[in-house]
Structures are given as C-alpha cells and as structure tokens.
Specification:
Chain lengths: 248, 197, 245
C-alpha cells in the first residue's frame, strides 16, 4: 500500500500514467458533456415557475459543486506535502488553485445570471453566493501567497499550510454565512428543493453534467500538472528524453 | 557527543562528525553553503536530504534534547535594538535557563561591555551588538555552539575574547562548530571542514 | 562512535539537569514581558492602531450620512469593521522586528514548545493593539448613536472577537514575514479568514440594540475563540518555521 502510495508520488510515474489515461478521459468527457448539454438544453421540460431559466442549473450546480471540492483537495495535498514532502502533491495543489478559482468565478457568474430573472438583480447576498464569494477570496489569497514567495520549496509549504487553515475555515464560514443570512432575510427560493416534483427527466441530465464537469476539472488539472512537472523536472533525464523525442 | 549529517543538495555526500571537546571550523568560499550547512544542522532549514544524529539519535526523533544542548548565533545577531543589553539577555537566557542580573552583568563584563547593561542596543555599534550576542555563550548551558561568522564585526580585543571563550568551552568538553574566514588562533583540538573540495 | 554516544548519554543527566528545570511557564512569562516592554518603548506603535480605529469610524458618518437614524442602523457593523481593519494594520509588528534582527531564530531554536512562545507573543500583541481598541469602542459607538443597550454587548463581543482576529492574523503574518514586498498580501490572506468573527460579532451588537436575546452569539464567539486559541498558534509556529527556512 505504501509502496503504491509513494510510486504515485513520483512525477515521472504520474506523467506516464496520466498520458495513457488522458485520451480516454477526454473521449468520456466529450460524450458525457454533449449528451448532457443537449439533453439539458433541448429535452428537459420547462420549470413550472422558472421556465427556461432552470437550464442554467445544469451548468451552475456542477461547477459550484466542484469548486466546493477544491479546498478539501488542496488541503489533502497540503497535508501530503507537509508530512511526506511529496513533490507531486504540491504540484497538484499549485495547479488546483487557479483552476479552482476559475470554477468558483464561473459558479458566481452563473449564479448571478440565474439570479437575475429570479430575484430581479444580478447580485444578492444569498448565503450560497456569499460563501462562494468568500471562498473565492480565500483561493485568491493562496494564489497570491504562492506568487509572492520566491523559493518554490517555501512556497509549497506555506501554501500547503494556508490551504489547510483555509479548509478548516471553509465550513465555519459557510455556517456563519448561512446563519447570518437566515436571520437577515427569509431563505431564498434559489434552492432546488423548492421543485418538489423532481423527476428523473430533470436529475438524470444533471447527474450526467456533474460527471462531465468533474471530468473536465480532472482533465484540466492533469494537463496543468503535467505542464508543471515538465517545468520543475526539466533538468532530469527523463524529461530531456521526452523533449528530445518530440523534436524529432 | 556525536553529530553527523550527509546530504545531497548543495553538497554531495557530505558526512562529518563532531565530538565533545572539539572545534570544527567550516571553511569555504562565498556561496559554498557554509551558512546553509549550519542552518540545516540547527533545523532552521529543512530542504535537504540526509540524516542528522545527535548522540546517536536522529535529531528529528528527539528535537527537544538537541535544542536544549544547542546555542546558535547567526548572521543576524538576535539583539532587539529597542531593548537594552540586559533586557535582551534576560529574555534569551529565560528561553534556556534563567539568570540573575548579576550573572548577566558578569557576562557583559566578560565580553568587554561593562557598564553597557542599560544602554539601548540601538545606540551601540555593530561590534558591540555582536558582543551582546556573544554574552549568550556565557549564559547558556548549551554544549554545542553553532556560530555563523561570529568574528565579522569584532575588533582585535573582541576577537581575542571570543577565541578565549571558544577555547574554554572546548576545554570543558563542549563542542563548537564555527564558520569564519578568520585565521583561528585557539589552543585546542581543532579540525577544518572545507566545502570547496 | 557508538561508544562516544553511550559515554555522553550516561553523563548526560548531570549536564542537562539545569536545562530541564527551565519551566515553559517562565519562558512564556519572559517572552510576554519582553514583547510588552518593546511595545511600551515604542509609544507610536501603541497609538497608531487606536488612531486608525478612530479615523476609520469617523469616516462612516462622512461617507454614509450624518443622520442619526441611519448611523444607528450601521453603527454595529461600522465599529466592528473598523476594529477588524485596525487589528489588521497592527499585525505587521507581530513578528517582523524579530525576523529582521534574528530574535526569531533564537526563539525557534529554544528548547521550549513553540506553541506557548507564539501564544505569548500573540497575547502581548493583543494586549497592546486589541485591548485599547476594545476600550475605546464605546466612545466611538456613542458617536455613531449605537443604542445604549448594546454597549456592553459591543465591548464583550469585541473582547471575545479581537483575540480571534489577532490569532488568525498571526498565521498570515508568520507566512509572509520573510517576504521582501508584502504589500497588501497579508490583508488578502487574512481578511477572508476573519469573516465568521465579523459576522457573529456585528450581528450580536445589532441584535442587542434591537433587544433580541444573544446568548447564542456569545456561545459561537466563545467557540471560535477556543478553537483559534488551541489551533492558531500551532499553525503560526509551523508558518514561522517555513518562513525562516
């Protein structure tokens, strides 16, 4: 088990394995994404209250759910970085931060677009949007810290620590924002549980889209991490071999 | 007393040991990694591969014992400029073993700073601040001294004082690890470690 | 080699006895005293956060309105936001000088549990920058027409909340203390972490001025304080080790 764990930590092993997996993941994602999008846009019935607006959900919910997974992911990578000094974990954490920030930004944007027809305003201090916004700030903080520290080694550890602190804070922020929000104004009808008639014709395409967006996240992360690996390991023999082969 | 390390980043396959009653002078040109080596040994720098032992036990396993036996004086002397010499020493002694004001005055006198106990360190010269830092050597019960360029700002008499301190410490069975370009004139068992080779 | 090791370890108890007697408590006290002494010798640093607090609070009437009713509505939030910013501003002093003059290395290499050493520095920092803000807050609350019922709540929530701000802030300072150009990065890192404290604290004061019971708010703030007291110094200590690396 440990051997497997540490082999996983080898950038070279990761680079080779992810190279083999990437095409399959890409195919799977393309299929799921096109099925999901066509289904959601063309065949899902209109919502009895929200009309066509409900279709934004098929982008918003998957993107929002993956951006919530970003901090735990970075915190786990951070623990691995600090405890086992595994370089690959830091590379993943480094690449996950900007991707996670983008996903969070997209979740915020789609939330705003969805909110416009429903609340009549582009921005509302809704509990979910607010805690998403704070999480966006936290991610920006991690990215800023990474770029501010020159030594890659110190940056890795500092960001790992900040990610762990942030991950402990995310649930606290989430609950305090929810608590603040429910006291301030009645709970919004933004949530899905309002649509009590939540039949399979609605949730099946949603599940498909969630898988597709997760795959999209994983693929972006893998591509970005592979890039990072090549950059950091550029002095090692196996990277030079790859570069030499590609030139031929 | 035994302390060993072996490392493969700045220095390849470096291994050495230091015994009690011994002084080891680390030499090397600028940028050869003297300071890095010392900081790694103390545990201030953890980006290395290799092993460090203190009395046969890996340092990571029992840091507290190691730290209790260690006194490190770095480039930055660790003297707060707003406080007086006495206040500075009172604090650093309290971290290791609290001393009375008489002890502190005696230590200051020994490093040639008699009457400076209540002077704010900002009003002292670099060499005098360095001497305040050296007074720690007298106040600390540590057996291993790790000194990074302790001679740089000292004048002739300061150099003499420090050399005597080193010799006395080694004679009492302590160990010293020191980096310096200064030609050490210490009557004790002394070895040199050259990082250029 | 092993021979030497054995020899020394057998003679060790003698040599180490005086060291073992150094109680963590006396080192804790010495660190606390030292930091307080440094702060007292730098009167300006003592006054600046307080002045900043005063100025920011007085910006609200200028920026929002001088209408008492409107000010009453925002008073709780305004005082809390200003306290938050004031504690951010004062954070920089926490480890900076020690990092620059090498005292931090001495602290990290002392045979004392870092948790308590960092805690001592945190406490002295709060006594110097947090407590005065708490004590000044009723005056500023009066200037913003906060209802009199809420004064005690304001002081008590700040008393519970500002230490949390200091403790969280210390992590950020410890992470950035080695950076040449820190700019606003400290605020970018730390401010999002302080959101729960701000929410609960400001809400408690606002609720108190409406006469709503606020036992729950105190409980939440207390829980945050307990959590950050037990964990934040550990994180700061780890961050300091990373920063001196």
């Amino acid at each position: 088990m440990w051997q497997w764990f540490f082999r996983l930590g080898s950038p070279k092993w990761f680079y080779e394995m992810s190279g083999k997996w990437l095409p399959w993941l890409l195919v799977l994602m393309t299929v799921l994404m096109s099925v999901g999008i066509f289904w959601a846009l063309l065949f899902v019935p209109q919502d009895y209250q929200q009309g066509d607006t409900i279709r934004i959900m098929y982008v918003h919910v998957p993107v929002a759910s993956i951006s919530l997974a970003c901090f735990p992911l970075m915190a786990v990578a951070g623990v691995i970085t600090l405890v086992w000094k595994m370089k690959l974990a830091d590379m993943v954490a480094k690449c996950a931060a900007p991707i996670g920030a983008w996903f969070t930004a997209v979740a915020l944007a789609t939330g705003a677009i969805w909110g416009q027809p429903i609340w009549g305003t582009w921005w509302a201090w809704d509990a979910r949007l607010t805690s998403m916004l704070i999480q966006f700030f936290l991610l920006i903080g991690v990215i800023a810290l990474r770029s501010a520290i020159e030594s890659p080694d110190a940056a890795a550890k500092a960001c790992a620590l900040l990610a762990i602190v942030g991950a402990i804070n995310v649930p606290i922020i989430k609950y305090s924002v929810e608590w603040w929000n429910t006291l301030h104004q009645p709970a919004s009808d933004f949530s899905m549980d309002e649509n009590s008639a939540f039949g399979p014709e609605i949730w099946v395409p949603l599940v498909i889209m969630i898988f597709a967006v997760y795959l999209f996240f994983v693929i972006s992360l893998i591509l970005s991490t592979r890039n990072e690996i090549l950059q950091r390991e550029r002095r090692s023999q196996w990277v030079m071999d790859i570069v030499a082969n590609e030139k031929v | 007393m035994f302390c060993e390390r072996d490392d493969r980043v700045l220095f390849n396959d470096l291994a050495f040991s230091l015994h009690e009653g011994e002084l080891l002078q680390v030499q090397g040109s600028n940028g050869s990694g003297k300071t890095t080596l010392l900081r790694i040994l103390c545990g201030l720098n953890s980006s290395y591969e290799g092993e460090l032992f203190w009395e046969g036990v890996p340092i990571d396993e029992d840091r507290e014992t190691f730290l209790a036996s260690l006194l490190y004086l770095g480039h930055r002397v660790g003297v707060n400029k707003i406080l007086t010499a006495r206040e500075n020493l009172r604090w650093s002694a309290a971290l290791h073993s609290p001393k009375t004001d008489q002890d502190i005055d005696a230590a200051l006198e020994a490093v040639g700073l008699m009457g400076y106990a209540d002077i704010t360190c900002r009003n002292m010269s670099a060499g005098q601040q360095q001497r305040v830092s050296l007074a720690r050597l007298l106040l600390s019960p540590a057996r291993l001294w790790v000194l990074d360029e302790p001679f740089t700002t000292l004048d002739v008499s300061g150099v003499k004082i420090l050399e005597n301190l080193l010799a006395a410490h080694v004679a009492q069975g302590g160990a010293v690890l020191v980096t310096t370009h200064h030609q050490l004139d210490v009557p004790c068992s002394m070895r040199r470690l050259n990082l250029d080779k | 080699m092993s021979d030497t090791a054995n020899n020394t370890s057998s003679s060790q108890p003698l040599g180490r006895a005086p060291i073992a007697q150094v109680s963590t408590f006396s080192a804790f006290k010495a660190t606390l005293k030292r930091d307080l002494l440094i702060a007292l010798k730098r009167r300006n640093d003592l006054l600046n956060p307080l002045m900043f607090f005063l100025i920011v609070v007085s910006l609200f009437p200028l920026g929002v309105s001088s209408d008492p009713q409107e000010l009453t509505r925002i008073a709780a939030g305004a005082v809390w936001v200003s306290a938050l910013l004031a504690s951010m501003l004062s954070l920089d002093n926490l480890f900076r000088a020690d990092y620059e003059d090498g005292s931090l290395e001495q602290l990290l290499l002392s045979p004392q549990p870092l948790y308590f050493m960092v805690l001592a520095k945190n406490i002295s920092h709060w006594l110097i920058s947090g407590l005065p803000v708490v004590l000044l807050s009723p005056l500023l609350a009066y200037m913003l027409y906060l209802p009199a019922d809420a004064y005690w709540t304001l002081v008590l929530t700040l008393l519970l909340g500002t230490p949390v701000l200091s403790l969280f802030g210390a992590i950020g300072v410890a992470l950035t203390v080695g950076l040449g150009s820190r700019g606003l990065i400290l605020a970018v890192i730390v401010l999002p972490l302080t959101v729960p404290v701000l929410i609960i604290g400001a809400k408690a004061v606002a609720d108190a001025s409406l006469g709503v019971p606020i036992g729950m708010h105190y409980a939440l703030l207390g829980a945050l304080l307990a959590l950050s007291l037990s964990l934040a110094p550990l994180a700061s200590a780890a961050a300091l080790k990373i920063s001196v690396n």
